[in-house]
Design a protein that fits this description.
52% strand; 11 strands; 1 helix; 4% helix; 9-stranded mixed beta sheet; Cathepsin D, subunit A, domain 1; mainly beta; globular
Length: 139
């Protein structure tokens, strides 16, 4: 199987829940991916959430799981995970994303190792170096 190569940043749309292009950070230190959402709650077995914290994208699903996820800092939190279809560079990928309030984070979305492994993707951080605001202080 041919390997696909992404940079450390990649533009992603999530057509399965109507999300327009978002620049996601590819995080090889994280197992699962995550999408910034607010107003995350379950009512009558339906998960309701607001992707990107933007009311125009409000969504609901009955397909979800609730799991303990540990951050890179070691902090554990319960997180809802939903199945989604991502579109990246003209190709569609089925995966699972966690929902979390990332309002204080630089990127609204992360793609983790699970996604990379499932889809045979390698990372070349040099491909998106010019877009990486964290790296610009070292260049």
């Amino acid at each position: 199987m041919t390997k696909k190569i992404f940079g450390s940043l990649v533009t992603v749309t999530i057509p399965s829940i109507g999300i327009p292009p978002v620049v996601a950070k590819v995080d090889t230190g994280a197992w699962s991916g995550v999408l910034h959402c607010t107003d995350i709650r379950v009512i009558d077995n339906m998960l309701h959430f607001t992707p990107l914290g933007d009311e125009q994208f409000k969504a609901s699903t009955n397909l979800y799981e609730y799991r303990l996820v540990r951050s890179a800092s070691g902090h554990a939190e319960q997180r809802y995970l939903i199945p989604v279809t991502l579109a990246i560079e003209g190709k569609k990928y089925d995966t699972t994303l966690g929902l979390s309030d990332r309002g204080e984070m630089q990127r609204e979305m992360l793609l983790g190792r699970k996604f990379l492994i499932e889809n045979n993707i390698l990372i070349d951080v040099g491909l998106t170096l010019d877009e990486d605001t964290e790296a610009e202080k070292y260049l």
